[in-house]
Write a structure and sequence with these properties.
The chain is an all-beta fold. The chain is 2% helix and 55% strand.
């Protein structure tokens, strides 16, 4: 299928849903754009700037040969595209496992990207700053305490007093990692090593602190990275249900099995869970909670294979599942951000299985 046909098909997608509550909501892909139409890019994460711009980060293709990112306006107009490496890097397949894992909007329209790439045949973590025009300002290779261990993963996110980069070290016990703090302009402040710094998912806490998930645990640290509290988590994969403002509770989705997910509510000291909600057949990549208390989970549903799906958990305890049809056109919603204050519209990133094309899709629940 060519790109024009893939785009036309995706815009005409019909969605099917199974309900466990009386809600009449339905899910619809309202519009979609193909990212980097000249290339088949793999978009893994999406971040939103204060002015509504969307920053998509990932790799040049599903083989992850070059780290790639793109910034578009809130209406979907391309602003810039960045490929880490030479201009002809689109056809350089000499090294794999190079990609951007996340992005943060900085001051003056600048963007910080964090990723993993190979340097002298060793995986290293790095961050770079791009200007409003998408041109490189500077790059910092991250070698925590110069210990020489290769990086095993990375995540970057805005905190209440700047931004944080989390990573883990390969060839060391699971859970060993480091935490780096940057100011709001992306200038490095400090780093700390510890066996409780996780990169799987993270969410800002009060006073510059952070909640983190990894190694089947959830922890809370203060603004200096000191451990405050922790609790165990079930399942093989977990994610926070992120809130727009300061959280009043810590809500976590845990994948217990292919067909079973549990949403757990902890208090801000991670005591609990004080409440749980059981969901059937929804795998989780991103969880978001709106100001109206509705939690929306993006990921996939399983029907002899993964196909894009979502779930809505309502304040009254009810829930509803949604599946994109036709099934298997894309296996996952990889990430999502809210695009309005009502909790009904989101921008998501996906890869169309028909030809491996990366796409940005706007989703509505109405």
């Amino acid at each position: 299928m060519n790109r024009k046909a893939a785009k036309a098909t995706s815009l005409a997608i019909v969605l099917w849903s199974v309900t466990s509550t009386a809600s009449a909501e339905d899910m619809k892909i309202t519009r979609q754009i193909i990212l980097s139409p000249a290339h088949k890019v793999a978009p893994y994460s999406i971040a939103q700037a204060p002015n509504g711009d969307l920053i998509i980060a990932g790799a040049d293709n599903v083989g992850n040969y070059r780290a790639w990112a793109m910034r578009v306006s809130k209406s979907g107009e391309p602003l810039w595209e960045y490929l880490d490496g030479p201009a002809d890097g689109w056809t350089d397949y000499s090294q794999r496992n190079q990609r951007f894992y996340g992005a943060v909007a900085l001051e003056n329209g600048n963007t910080l990207l964090c990723g993993i790439k190979q340097e002298e045949k060793r995986n290293v973590a790095f961050v770079m700053r791009l200007g409003p025009d998408g041109k490189l300002i500077d790059e910092r290779i991250l070698r925590p305490s110069n210990n020489g261990y290769p990086a095993g993963g990375i995540r970057c996110l805005a905190s209440n007093d700047g931004l944080v980069v989390l990573s883990r070290l390969a060839l060391l016990p699971r859970g060993t990692g480091w935490m780096m703090k940057f100011d709001a302009a992306g200038n490095f402040l400090w780093e700390k090593l510890g066996d409780h710094y996780f990169y799987l998912d993270a969410m800002p806490a009060d006073n510059g602190g952070l909640f983190m998930i990894g190694g089947n645990e959830v922890i809370k640290v203060d603004g200096e990275g000191n451990l405050l509290s922790r609790n165990n988590l079930p399942g093989s994969e977990q994610t926070f249900v992120h809130t727009h403002g300061p959280p009043t509770k810590v809500r976590i989705g845990a994948l217990l099995s292919t067909l079973q997910t549990e949403i757990m509510d902890f208090d801000l000291k991670l005591q609990g869970p004080v409440h749980t909600t059981h969901l059937d057949n929804i795998a989780i990549k991103r969880g978001l909670e709106s100001g109206n208390g509705i939690a929306t989970l993006f990921g996939s549903r399983y029907f002899n294979g993964a196909t894009e799906g979502a779930a809505r958990v309502y304040p009254n305890g009810g829930s509803k599942m949604f599946t994109v049809e036709p099934r298997f056109q894309s296996g996952w919603f990889y990430d999502a951000v809210p695009t309005d204050s009502s909790g009904r519209e989101f921008a998501t990133v996906r890869t169309l299985n028909a030809d491996g094309t990366g796409a940005l899709a706007w989703i509505s629940f109405k």
